[in-house]
Automatic annotation (TrEMBL):
Keyword Nucleus: no
Keyword annotations from UniProtKB, A to Z: Cell outer membrane, Membrane, Signal
Lineage start: Bacteria, Pseudomonadati, Bacteroidota, Cytophagia, Cytophagales
Lineage top rank: taxon: Bacteria
KW Membrane (keyword) present: yes
Organism: Arcicella rigui
Name assigned to this protein: RagB/SusD family nutrient uptake outer membrane protein
Domain RagB/SusD: start-end pairs: 413-533
Location in or out of the cell: Cell outer membrane
Main location: membrane
Family: Belongs to the SusD family.
Amino acid sequence: MNKKIYAFFALLGILTIESCTNLDEVVLDESFTSNLSAKQAADGIISPVYAVLPSIFTHTNYFAIQEISTDEAILPYRGGTDWGDNGIYLALHAHNQTSTDPNLKNTWNLILQGMSRSITAINTLPSSSEPAAKTYLAEAKGMRAYYSMLTLDLFGLVFVKNDIGETSSILRGDKAVEYIKSELLAVEPNLETNVGPGRLSKGAVWGLLARLYLNAAVYRDPYAASPTFKNEDLDKVIEYTDKIIASGQYQLSRDYFAIFNSDNHTNKELIFAVDQRAELNGHNRLAYFSLSGDQFPLPAYPNANGTDGPAITSDFYRTWVSAYGSQDPKVDPRFYRENLSIYSNPADSCVAAENFNINRGILRGQQYGLIRKNGVFLKCADGKMKVGKLFNDTRNKSTLPVDFTEKVDFTTEGSNYSTGYRVEKYEFSKKSVSGRNFGEADIVIVRLADIYLMRAEAKLRKSNDVTSALADVNTVRAARTYSTPAPALTSISLDLLYRERGFEFYWEMLRRTDMIRFGKYEDKWTEKTNTDKNKRIFPIPQTAIDGASNIPGYLTQNQGY
C-alpha cells in the first residue's frame, strides 16, 4: 500500500464525531481525490480504517487497561508524584476504576473512530472501479468486526451500524457474539492470504475467530460464576487453529525477542499486527513506558529515555520463580536477553554506538547503560559510547542507583523510582527521527504461538486431551532455539497452561482477557483485593452516556458502576 497515500488520508481524511449515537464521519470531498488514480483513491479509503490502530495501542490506552488492571503490571505514584494522574492507575490496578477515567474514554473513542472509519469505507468502496476494492471492502467489514470484538471484550457491548445516516443498534451477550462471528465468516472468502501482518488476511480472520470462539463463554455471560464452554465452540477453536497451522504460512520464531524487534514486520510468527513501520508514524511508547528515566536506548537521541512507568508485580514474578525452582528464571529464553556485556564483564565499558543495544525482557537489579551528563552522552577516548552504572540523575538523585527491586506497591517506599522489575519487550526503533515517535516495531495482535496455545486450551477444556495439549505447548517452548530453549514440560493442566500463557504473552495485552476466562480476575494480588465480578468489564465512559441522553434508554451503564 502506498505509504504517502496512507499518511495523506490519515492526516487529512476523516474527522470523527465521538458521539456513540452517530458514529459519523466527514467524507472527503471529491475535489480532493479527482487527480488520483482508482488504485490511489481505493488505498486512501481503506488506509484510515487501519490508521487509528497505533493510537489505540499506545501505553495509556489499550495497553494500560489490559495490563495494569491485572496481576502482571502495576503503576504506583513514582516518587510520590509522577504518574499520579488523579489516581487512575492506582484505581485501575485495584479494580476501582470509574466512568470518568480518561484512559477508558480515550480507548472507547478511538475504537469507535476505527469502527466509524470502517463504515465510511464500507459505504464508499462499492463504487470504486479498482479491482482491489473488493478485497478492501472485505477488510473494512472485517475490521469493523475486530473493533466490535474490542468493545465486546472491554465494555460488554457491540454497536451495529451499516449506513452513515442511521443510529447504531446495541447488542450484548450471545447476540453480540453471533453478530461478530457472522461478519468475520462473511468476509473470509474475499480476503487475501499474503498481504503481510499489517492488513486483515484469511489467517488473521481465522485467528480472530479462534479467539472469539474461545472467549464466547465469557462474552455470552460476563458475570457468570464460571464460564460455560460449549463443545461446539471449542471444536471451532480447534478447526481454525488447525487451518492456520496447516497452512504452513506462519512459523514460530526461533528468536523470541525478534518477534518484537523494530524490523519485525517480516517475522513469520506475526499473523495480525499494528503496522508501525516508520513511514506510518508509529511510536516507541511500549518500548520506553517501563524503563527508568535514566535508561537511554538510542545513542543518537539523548532525550529518548524511559518514563519510570509500570513494573511487573512481585506476584507475577513469583510465578516464574515457582516454575523454575532452584534455577534462575532466565533459563527460559522468554524471560531475559542480555545484550550489554558489562553485566557479566565490568571491564566492557566502551561500546560502539552501532552495537549498543539495551537488555530485553524482564530487567532486574542494578542497571547499566549510556551515561548522560548535562544533556549529552559521555564517550570513551576512542570515541565509543561510555557505558556504566546508572543513577537517577534525571530525578536529581545522582547518588541513588537505578537498581530495580522486586518489591513494588502503593506505599511511599514501594513507589520509588527504581522499585519493581521492568519490562523491555519491544525494541526501540533505530530509524526513529525522535527516539519516541516513528517507531517501527509492529505491535502484535495475533501470532502463531497464541494459535498453538489456544488449540491446547480448547483440547483440554473439551476432552482433557493432555497428550495433544502438552505437545502444542512444548512445540512453542522448543521453537526458541536462538539460545537454549525452555525445558519441555512433562505435564499440563489448565492451571499450568494459564501460567504458560503468562510466560509467553506477558506485556502483550492479553492478560486481562486470559484472567477472566481462567477465573482468576477476582483473585487478590499486590494492592488489589476487590473481588467484584462486575469489574470484569469496564464502565462505559460517562461522556458517551451523556452524549446519548437524547435517546432514552439507548445506552445504559454497565452494572456495578
